[in-house]
Amino acid sequence: MSIAAPPVVRTDAGAVAGLWREHRSGDGSVSRAAVFLGVPYAEPPVGELRFRAPVSRAPWEGERPASLHGATPQRRSPWGDPFVPEPSIPGDDLLTLDVGTPDPSPAAGLPVLVYLHGGAFLAGSHASPWYGGQAFHRDGVVTVAPAYRLGFDGFGWIDGAPPNRGVLDWLAALEWVRRNIRAFGGDPDRVTIAGQSAGGAAVMRLLALPAARGLFRGALALSPADVPMTEDRACIAAGRVATRLGVTPDLAGLASVSERDLLAAQDAAVDPVAVDPFGGRFDPALPLAPVIDGDLVPHSVSDAIAAGVGDDVALLIGSTAHEFNTAVDASAPALRDLDPLAILARMGVPEGLRGPLAARAPAPDAASVAGQAFTDLEFRRHVAGWAAARATGAAAVRTWAYDFRWPAPDTGLAVHCLELPFGFDILRDREAVRRAGADAPQALADAVHGDWLSLIVDGRVDAPIHGGEGVTVVYGEPIREIRDAYLFERRLAEETL
Questions:
Q1: Which residues participate in catalysis according to the annotation?
Q2: Residue 333 exposed, middle or buried by CB count within 10 Å (0-12, 13-18, 19+)
Q3: pTM (2 decimals)?
Q4: Dist. CA 181–CA 11, nearest whole Å
Q5: Which of 58, 176, 405, 451 is most buried by its number of CB atoms within 10 A?
Q6: Residue 10 forms beta bridges with which residues?
Q7: How would you label 179-209 residue by residue, b for 16+ Cβ within 10 Å and e otherwise?
């Protein structure tokens, strides 16, 4: 295929015409990839299709232009200055995906990475330049970044509408990949799913989902939080939104509300910070998230792993050392004179673990201790518990864990999202420089990206499995070492989950 003309690929709904992009690596080498943006995998979820399961896209005639990102379900970011650049793109054609490939020919047979963005299931953008996958294209990987419905549209409980519409969108995107990725040079039998934060939770949910079996062979769960939303809690959240709108919490009532009004009611009813451990509202479940509905989502992730669901999938799972430590910064003045151990008691930390947890904090003051507890309770205990649960049986030989501990120069902490510019190997990106600093070590990016790449290409990581000894790949200083990094978090999981 000549690079003088736009690359054209035929999907099962019609042909798409993309564009060629060049990528310059840190060593000066240049690689090219064909990029197809805004490729539809389902009909726009508007009108009669609003709050419905995704419907396969109707065929089109001719070549559909695929040089611009599709619309984003995120209409605006609720975060003042998100760590990851997350553009909001207007429009109704929300269920699209972006594909990048180093070789858009059906015979290429390349491994495939499907990346699900994070954002607390309320926000985030598949169109982030960080998710473009340029370094993966350089390394012979096809990438796919799907959009999916967010907030109430994707995860709100509505009587008369299918629950877990966002989950159904993930499945529809993966089924589209199964049917079409060969035309873009990908191998449908070598698909790895990945995601960070809520995207990591999505990966773990898909790993535990019976309906997702056979759609991927590998999973990369970056900083996944546990989201055990029950029907009762989902109904309460839906009732709050409907009450603010003055409608009934059913399909007839909510379908009569404009998107703008629904978003306003959602914002008023749901705090985007999700939890507030110092306002008497500490609750580790996000208010809009996949719901255990007894049908599509029959079990919690923990119960599914215990039952052996997903044992055939290779998993690399981990977190940063200080995920949400800085989330308590605004509360620091109010915490200054409080006893750190009393705060840990209020946050539900068992008495015997309060001292050890306080000792883990970067500083002995109350805010630092509370921040570390926030990180351990929201993220690290779940990573440790899930990795340990897969340490026996068929999953044991397919489970690896990581712990990202390299500290950013501005905070001195390994905060939420910090591993992303390393794993995507984009340290020279302007926003990555702002977050990780101009002197972030390329050797660390080589290590993290290399482990991601190994999972995607070979279905394994070049490191000992997690196993019963809790072996973990630790990224920091030194760059990469192997040791048990989740001993405390396993105890925390055992005594609190």
A1: 197, 323, 416
A2: exposed
A3: 0.94
A4: 8
A5: 176
A6: 15
A7: ebbbbbbbebebbbbbbbbbbbbbbbbbbbb
